[in-house]
Amino acid sequence: MPYPTDRERDRPWVMRTYAGHSSAAASNELYRRNLAKGQTGLSVAFDLPTQTGYDPDHQLSKGEVGKVGVPVSHIGDMRRLFDGIPLAEANTSMTINAPAMWLLALYVSVAREQAEAEGRDVDEVLAKLTGTTQNDIIKEYLSRGTYIFPPGPSLRLITDMIAWTVHHVPKWNPINICSYHLQEAGATPTQEVAYALCTAIAVLDAVRDSGQVEQADMAKVVARISFFVNAGVRFVEEMSKMRAFTALWDEITRDRYGVTDPKARRLRYGVQVNSLGLTEAQPENNVQRIVLEMLAVSLSRGARARAIQLPAWNEALGLPRPWDQQWALRMQQVLAFETDLLEYEDIFDGSHVIQAKVDEIMTGAREEIARVQDLGGAVAAVESGYMKSQLVASLAEYRRGMENGERILVGVNKFETTEPSPLQAEGAKAIETIDPAVEKQAVTAIEEWRTHRDNAAAESALEKLKTVAKTSENLFEATIECARAGVTTGEWSGALREVFGEYRAPTGVSASAAAGEGNEEIRRVRDRIKATNTEIGERLRILVGKPGLDGHSNGAEQVAVRARDVGFEVVYQGIRLTPEQIVAAAVQEGVHVVGLSVLSGSHLEVVPQVVDGLRAAGAGDIPVIVGGIIPPDDEKLLLERGIARVFTPKDYELTDIMDGIVGLVRERHGLST
After folding, report:
1. Which distant-in-sequence residues (6+ apart) come within 8 Å of 282 by Cβ?
2. Which residues are catalytic?
3. pTM
4. Residue ranges of the B12-binding domain (predicted)?
């Protein structure tokens, strides 16, 4: 998005809606409708199998296909996804990280096919491609969990991709350094700025040191680095955060990388406001939360977002409907076109209050950046668990403030009385649901794809990819060859898994701060657990599990921390476990209760598998509880399938949950509750 001169009215930001579900064909229809409504950019949500490098027919994909995004398994899916949408004229953001190189290779290949079909010069079309691949693997280890490979090989994939795009797709943003999920994982404004900039330093150092980009071209690299940030409801603080972010980025790129062009040093960022801050209780309040959060990244012209996508009011309930997404788009359009926001210079320049807050965040961020660099940089701080433990501790502190009433959430821990909502009236379909047949269709489709492609060409391309992966050669051309040969997402990732291996990031749970002996409720539950330990003759043990591909582990980590604080022995092995692995761990560890966390909508598929597995293993007496974004109708189905308790975001009092779990265990052991 070109920046206007100070004499012009500021141009509106790129307006997006994060969208995609079911299939490439269904998502293509949704994109066309959104563009017709005035959306100026596309933001592709991929399903979890695609994000984690699996095909729809993989065991771990069961229950996950098409739920939180669109499945893209090969170039045929990418063709269908953008059918009728000229890629040379589109501005496309793709939320994809570990397989970012693969998805961009598919996108570039389809753009090349479009150019050839129209008789246009391929290089000219590629030079016009605009958009972003998220491609920030550091934050995946810290918060979102869709990583595949160890940090070293992951950084190599990012480096190769940046080097290739700078030379061949010069208007594309090959990485979107994403502090968004850091905030959702508990980061304070200072931590969000510091850890995002530490990631940027790690990436830019790797590109500079790779020898693939001349020093004279580092300004081109810096100019194509974009960020994706979070904006919470404390909009004065959030706006000050963005002004601090902007100033620090300018400082780092000038001093560390010698970039002299001020335009190249501008902080270029997109935003989605805080989805996990939206509430299930009184969800209509989310509308004003979204609007206030949007102001944080739009009011200050000098630090204004150049792309915004807003969640819908009902995302705490489930997948938004097209009408809900339209409402979110209209919020942006009203602000941009009806108000006078874009007509003025930065209205906060000269404010001593704002400048004091900006200085505070900058000082704290500089100190934290220095601390991470002293540890060896962002990669080392991930591998040691330092950054993860800091985020887990920060989120625990946030939750304690919410539980004790210091941090008010309207409709949740204060002002809880409400009238019935006409938005959720009986008979109203409040959320979008995905037909289970979608997964079966995707499995059948990929089997047919493998049958009809040139398998010899696909195998040859995969062998070449593995050969190149064992060298220091850039991997992008080999990846494009795989894309054009009809290789699938799972096959590309699987080939690199063979060479690079897989990775399990530190959970940060063991190093997080305890809730404190002084909390009366925690002390009461702890005493109750001690008494139960004595009565059953052993210490109570809880397994906290994340079945399926959902990597949003914040809730599971907070449950594990609070369970430890009240006296449970906690078994928590991190994310992406099969139901069979969870059952095996529960039996081997002799746990007294299994707690599952699922946010991806796959609860009806993966949770009953754990219950059935425990019964088959002769451990059917172990109660299973589940927490996540679970609609009321699904809650009833889970209880009918043998789940002992269901918790949703409205159940925010973790100590009360722990008390209920102790009562459940006592009940199962025939003790008084």
Report:
1. 410, 411, 412, 416, 418, 421
2. 18, 180-181, 546, 550, 552
3. 0.88
4. 539-668
